[in-house]
Amino acid sequence: MTQVIVLNGGSSSGKSGIARCLQAVLPGPWLALGTDTLVEAMPASMQTSDGGIGFAPDGEVTVGPEFRTLEAAWLEGIAAMARAGARVIVDEVFLGGAESQQRWRKALGELQVLWVGVRCDAAVAAGREVARGDRIIGMAASQAELVHRGVAYDLEVDTAHAESMACARTIAAHVE
């Protein structure tokens, strides 16, 4: 039985919308947690120190050792929730591509995971980024392909060609 669904895609690719739709179409309750939740839970000082997380004016994201320490605890916490019986949808941005996936694989261990690539054309994601108004312009375009480098998926969806609900239904069909 699938215990964790990991949605990986760049900023404004549609992961959050898919996660909400998955909660609506999957049987039983599923928690939806994402990297934005982690960043929002961190103190503001984490965005002003070299050890935390930085957002450059061009959309580049950098992370330091303090961020990685908290991220490691976050990953272990999500894995512990799944081991305790919660089914979890993870909304993630693999800035390090395959290296990011490896951190998740290590934390999730023996859990049954469905790895989903959420693709979106860079221009489409950039348009969504502007429309949202809460993102640094350039982040979506810079992450559109970067987050998928070397990542192995069970399934991929493309939000430039399908709505969130259609993507969620495709994913749900692969959940055991």
Summarize the structure in words.
There is one protein chain. The chain has 176 residues and is an alpha/beta fold. It is built from 7 helices and 7 strands; from the N terminus they run E-H-E-H-E-E-H-E-H-E-H-H-E-H. Strand 3 (53-55) and strand 4 form a beta hairpin. The longest helix is centred in the middle third of the chain and has 19 residues, at 65-83. The chain is globular.
Binned, the helix content reads 40-55%
Largest sheet: 5 strands, parallel
Number of strands: 7
What are the segments in which pLDDT stays under 50 over at least 5 consecutive residues? Answer: none
Overall radius of gyration: 15 Å
Tell me the layout of helices and strands.
Blueprint: E1 4-8, H1 15-25, E2 30-34, H2 35-41, E3 53-55, E4 61-63, H3 65-83, E5 87-92, H4 98-108, E6 113-119, H5 122-132, H6 139-143, E7 155-158, H7 164-172
Parallel strand pairs: 1-5, 1-6, 2-5, 6-7
Antiparallel strand pairs: 3-4
Helix pairs in contact: 1-7, 3-4
What's this entry about, in short?
The protein is of the alpha/beta class and 176 residues long. It contains 7 helices and 7 strands; from the N terminus they run E-H-E-H-E-E-H-E-H-E-H-H-E-H. Helix 1 (15-25) crosses helix 7 and helix 3 (65-83) packs across helix 4.
Name a few traits of the molecule.
five-stranded parallel β-sheet; 7 strands; alpha/beta; 19% strand; 176 residues
